[in-house]
Amino acid sequence: MRSAACALILCTVTSGVGAADYFSVLPSGNAVHDALEQSPQVVIAREQMSMASARERQLRAGVHEWAIGAKGQRRTDAAGITYSEEQYELSRGLRWPGKASLDRALGAQAVTVGELAFEDAWHEAGRTLLNGWFSWIRSLETARQMDAQVKLLQEQLRTVEARVRAGDAPRVEQALAQTEVDRAAAAATAAQLEAAKGALALRRQFPALQVIEPTSTDMPQAVEESDDAWKQRIVSANHELLLAEAVHEDARLVAKRSSRERLPDPTVTLQFSNNLDGNDRVVGVGIVMPIGGARRRAEHALAVGEASIAEQRARETRLKVEADAEQAILAARATHSQWQRLSQVASQSDLNATTVARGYGLGEFTIAELIAARRQSQEAALAAVLARLDALEAAARLRLDAHQLWTADNHPEEE
User: Fold this and answer.
1) DSSP letters along 154-202, please?
2) Is residue 56 classed as helix, strand or coil in its secondary structure?
3) How far is CA 66 from the centre of its chain?
4) CATH of the domain at 194
5) What does R_g of the chain's alpha carbons equal in angstroms?
6) How many domains does the chain have?
7) What is the crossing angle of helices 171-205 and 367-401, to 10°?
8) pTM for the full predicted model
9) Quick one: which of 48, 122, 201, 227 is 20 to 30 A from 107 by CA?
10) How confident is the model at residue 278 (pLDDT cuts 50, 70, 90)?
11) Among 222, 217, 45, 39, CA closest to 121
12) What are the b/e assignments for 316-346, b being 16+ CB within 10 Å?
């Protein structure tokens, strides 16, 4: 009897799948979009993006504000005559024009950093969901394989029992066959537990995601296009790299702004005083100019250092992103090749087990040989199914990193 896994593999190979159905093993694009949109990681990033907009308004407005001052006093001259006097002030600090333009640039850069941080958080949440989803699917497939193996071993046990009743086999063979059934049943129970744990983990990380077993699975497809094309696509669209470069640009602007800050902003004051009971009125203009010192020079040196560190981090991030892209491409190609080989092994092992089972019924093989053949077939079938899922996950990860899957732009098409 062919195992369920081999039947599924052979059916998939012969029927094929279209590009639109390639990732039917995954939840729908709309379901994933809703789940990612409500995940804590993305919600936090959205709030930070709103904060970046507030930061932009703050920088555009500047730190200076209008200030109003008022003072009243009574003056008594030498003759003993007392006069009422009043003084009013209106003052405000003024940014030098070069500082104001840099503050506007810093505000715009803060918005850019916030948007890129949101995109990066969305992508990282997508990676987490992809990993968790395939982990759960693997546990489901393992449980399904174990259940199929239990049924095959139960049929095998009935064959052994028939031979024992006919006197063609010793009773110990029945005990061995029963032990094998019990072992497989225990493994099936453990696999079902792991599947339940995987579903719980997904629901905990993504409360809005409906963890529903897919109705179909897919045949892995070979990666098309060259490695260089995929690498360029992944690196050019990588938000982690874009974010690091944006943070470097922000640090560079902060350093440039701190250089301008070594020249302090003046404070201009308009004054009006009403003296001697209104007989003496004074209108004046005052200016206060702080003198920059060691503190401002130290702040500029710190900002220059931070900009240099941000530049090196951006370079480090580029190297990391390029290495990750190369690994993702390599994994997609290698897992596809591995699945093809293991599928052939599973088919041959299943054929061998079927032949041994038929021969055992005719007295040509021992129970030990039958048990060994069944175990080899089950292990090969499970390895092929898991390799198929590894290949599908690697292909999905490649498309995810290339931003061809689960993007945050509007509401996605159904995958």
Assistant:
1) HHHHHHHHHHHHHTSS-HHHHHHHHHHHHHHHHHHHHHHHHHHHHHHHH
2) helix
3) 46
4) 1.20.1600.10
5) 37
6) 1
7) 10
8) 0.81
9) 122
10) low
11) 45
12) ebbeebeebbeebbebbbebbebbbebbebb
Please give the residue that has the higher pLDDT: either 232 or 169.
232
**Mean pLDDT score across all residues of the chain:** 86
How far apart CA 271 and CA 70 sit, in angstroms, is 10
Burial of 373 (0-12, 13-18, 19+ CB in 10 A): buried
Q: How many CA atoms lie within 13 A of 166 on its CB side?
A: 11
Lowest mean pLDDT among 201-210, 261-270, 365-374: 365-374
Q: Which residues pair with 270 in a beta bridge?
A: 90, 285
Q: Are strands 82-93 and 67-76 parallel, antiparallel or unpaired?
A: antiparallel
3-state DSSP assignment of residue 68: strand
Does residue 286 belong to any structural domain of this protein? no
- Which pLDDT tens digit goes with each residue over 228-268? 999 999 999 899 999 999 999 999 999 999 999 898 999 99
Q: Is residue 352 part of a domain?
A: yes
Q: Which residue has the tokens 């599928």?
A: 343
Give the domain extent around 347. Answer: 4-64+97-264+319-401
Which amino acid, 207? Answer: P
Please choose, from the candidates 328, 325, 332, the residue with its C-alpha nearest in 3D space to the C-alpha of residue 392: 332
Measured from the Cβ of residue 76, the count of other Cβ atoms closer than 10 Å reads: 9
Query: What Cα–Cα distance (Å) separates residue 249 from each residue in 4, 49, 116?
Result: 56, 17, 13
Q: Token match 């405000």: residue?
A: 92
Tokens of 176: 């061995």
Structural contact between residues 289 and 265, judged by C-beta atoms closer than 8 angstroms: no
Please indicate, yes or no, if residue 287 is contained in any of the structural domains.
no
Residues paired with residue 282 on neighbouring β-strands, in sequence order: 273
Model confidence at 364, in pLDDT bands (50, 70, 90)?
confident
d(CA 132, CA 11): 27
Tell me the C-alpha distance between 115 and 123, whole Å.
Answer: 13
Please check whether residue 296 is in contact with residue 335, taking contact to mean a CB–CB distance below 8 angstroms.
no
Q: Has residue 80 been placed in a domain?
A: no
Looking at the predicted structure, is the pLDDT value of residue 414 above 80? no
Judge contact between 386 and 141, C-beta under 8 A.
Answer: yes
- What lies within 8 Å, CB to CB, of 265 at 6+ separation is 64, 93, 94, 95, 96, 99, 290
